[in-house]
Amino acid sequence: MARAGLTTERVTIAGAELADEVGFDQVTMSRVARRLGVKDASLYTHVRSLEDLRGRIALLAADEKTLRIAEAAAGRSGRDALVAFANAWREYAHRHPGRYMATQAPLTIDPELAQQAPGPRRAIELTYGMLRGYGLAEPDLTDAVRLLRSTFHGFVALEATGGFGHARPPQRSWARNLDALHTLLMNWPTPEEEDPS
Question: Torsion over CA of 56, 61, 62 and 67, rounded to 10 degrees?
């Protein structure tokens, strides 16, 4: 019998908190059960499997991260929007490292559950909307989205693992990277004719 008060949401939040403490890849059903003070079997009333739980953590994190980015970038455009967007992304990664990694992990998420979660869809809308402010259209929009994601994620992933050993503070490099991205987006290169293969 499931413990009174235990819900799918509580199990997901407990998993997300655990991810921030020990790392997303270290979240197990046993650890979540211990955190909640229940037997492992009690969790299966609320989540189908560890994969299901990890998918739910990823969707929760995507919702949280997207909300913070939307709040930070609201009413801004151009460089101001880019900086607010990027800073909110980085701040979320710093405050919630396990949850953040859940948003970057390749997971198989129940399509019905994913359909109900606004975070991933809203993240795409926000990113494309911000980049349209630079006058970009397809296929440049997709290329620019990939550039931003790889730059932001690469930077915060290196920070998380202590990958910046130089004496120059990472914050200064971050600010300069955002200046460089803004300059690039303002002067996006005209694509050469693409090879169809």
Answer: 130
Chain length of the chain: 197
One-letter amino acid for residue 41 of the chain: A
For 13-60, write each residue's pLDDT tens digit. Answer: 999 999 999 999 999 999 999 999 999 999 999 999 999 999 999 999
User: What Rg do the C-alpha atoms of the chain give, in angstroms?
Assistant: 19
Q: List CB contacts of 71: < 8 A, sequence separation 6 or more.
A: 88
What is the model's pTM? 0.89
* Greatest distance between any 2 Cα atoms in the chain: 63
User: What is the C-alpha separation between 19 and 100, in angstroms, rounded?
Assistant: 9
Q: Which amino acid is at 112?
A: E
Contact criterion met (CB below 8 Å) for 141 and 128: yes
Angle between helices 78-95 and 170-186 (to 10 degrees): 140
CB distance 114 to 120 below 8 Å: yes
Q: Vertex 19, ends 89 and 2: CA angle to 5°?
A: 130
* 99/54 Cα distance (integer angstroms): 10
- Cβ neighbours of 86 (radius 10 Å): 25
Chain-centroid distance of CA 79 in Å reads: 21
